[in-house]
Input
Amino acid sequence: MDGILSFSRQDSDDYYRLIGCSESSSREQILTEYKAKALEVHPDKNPNDPSAEVRFKKLQFAKDTLVDAEKRKQYDFWRKNGIAISYERWITIKDATFKASFHWATQKGDTKVAIESKSSKDLSKKDGSAGSSVPKWEREAPDAILRMFRNYEI
Output
């Protein structure tokens, strides 16, 4: 909990800055910038720098994230919403948390619609417009256990 409350983003958390491109860069532009940056920070080019391998792995992860459209969408969501954990940690727990949080949610089927047909006489008596029909939405009443669950009775 303290890690979340005391979290502050580092420059290395901004993958666009790390690679040297903007948010609007295309996939090809990101790959071009990555190749130039990778030549600079590659561990073979910097044998006396022990942190070169860590920086190169971070650069590779940034490239993999920004080149993949789905990962890039998730990264942009994380970046814009100011989530108070690192992106790497968020991505590892995101799916597990989502599944655990919404395990009880089920996708609803088609909603049934019943249209009451009334004669034009009946409609003209009520609202003065003849020939229109008003749709009525029907829904199955939940069983007793489901109702109790929804009302926090069990």
